Amino acid sequence: MSQVSIVTLLMALAFAGTHIFIGRLDFLDRTPRNGWLSFAGGTAVAYVFLHILPELGGHRTAFAEAISMGPELAETLVNSLALLGLSSFYALERAIKISRSRSRQMGEGDRIESHMLWLHIGSFSLLNVMIGYLLSHREDMSAGGLALYFIAMALHFATADFGMRRDHVKAYDAYGRWIIAGAVMLGWLMGMLIELPGIAVGGLFAFVAGGVVLNVMKEELPEDRQSRFWPFAAGAIIYSALVIGETMLVTG
Questions:
Q1: d(CA 4, CA 42)
Q2: Band of the pLDDT at 108, cuts 50, 70, 90?
Q3: 167 CB-near residues (< 8 Å, 6+ apart)
Q4: Comparing 251 with 4, which gets the higher pLDDT?
Q5: 3-state DSSP of the chain
Q6: What CA–CA distance (Å, rounded) separates 235 from 45?
Q7: Residues 23, 67: Cα–Cα separation, whole Å
Q8: Are 148 and 47 in contact (CB under 8 A)?
Q9: Could you tell me the pTM of the whole model?
Q10: Using alpha carbons only, how large is the chain's radius of gyration in Å?
Q11: How confident is the model at residue 235 (pLDDT cuts 50, 70, 90)?
Q12: Which range of residues forms the domain containing residue 191?
């Protein structure tokens, strides 16, 4: 196993650990929203806009060559996949809210129907498989690039996990966290064994970018969260500075 493979394995294990042990950080789950969660959200969003989305530009060539289209059309297609990722997770959140409302109307309390629970877990597991796979298939496999990816995704997982655990605490603690943690490890293993074409890797990047943006913003924007702007802004600014610094070192 190469040194890079060992590093990405450790990163995948850390991601899995975030899912498994997030429940022990109950002090973060309060209203008004804990500043560290808003900081994590700002960091994840900054990573998407300053690292993943610009990196998608490098994949438009693979799209153009694979489908024999112009660069402008290829770029539009890549961005459309990012929009698809955002829209897919927005649809999931709407379905969960409708399911909870339906349960209340039927006198079953504030709960999510069982089939929606499995859809929620399954959707996040699929996203985790993609994120785990991309650990070993990124354009920037430098130490700095991997570190930035790890920080942003770990903080994104923390934010998303709090939201999922709030929706169904018992199911998440009993088996949900293990399924989601296993998904990121499965993604890493697939990355070691399967080499997807460039157009497929670019599509994964785009879809993950859209999903991350929606999952972060849905946690920060609702009024009942009483989210904090300045920690969110601090996370975005600090992480942006790290990305810019890393870019200057690479290009300088």
A1: 28
A2: low
A3: 96, 112, 120
A4: 4
A5: CCHHHHHHHHHHHHHHHHHHHHHHCHHHCCCCCCHHHHHHHHHHHHHHHHHHHHHHHHHHHHHHHHHCCCHHHHHHHHHHHHHHHHHHHHHHHHHHHHHHHHHHHCCCCCCCCHHHHHHHHHHHHHHHHHHHHHCCCCCCCCHHHHHHHHHHHHHHHHHHHHHHHHHCHHHHHHHHHHHHHHHHHHHHHHHHHCCCCHHHHHHHHHHHHHHHHHHHHHHHCCHHHCCCHHHHHHHHHHHHHHHHHHHHHHHC
A6: 9
A7: 45
A8: yes
A9: 0.80
A10: 18
A11: confident
A12: 3-251
For 101, phi then psi, to 5°, come to -65, -40
* Count of all residues that appear for the chain in the document: 252
User: Each residue of 144-184: pLDDT tens digit?
Assistant: 778 888 888 888 788 778 777 777 778 888 888 999 999 99
- Determine the residue type at 87: S
User: How would residue 185 be classed by pLDDT, with cut points 50, 70 and 90?
Assistant: very high
Q: What is the number of structural domains in the chain? A: 1
More confident residue, 48 or 27: 48
Tokens 């698809």 correspond to what residue? 84
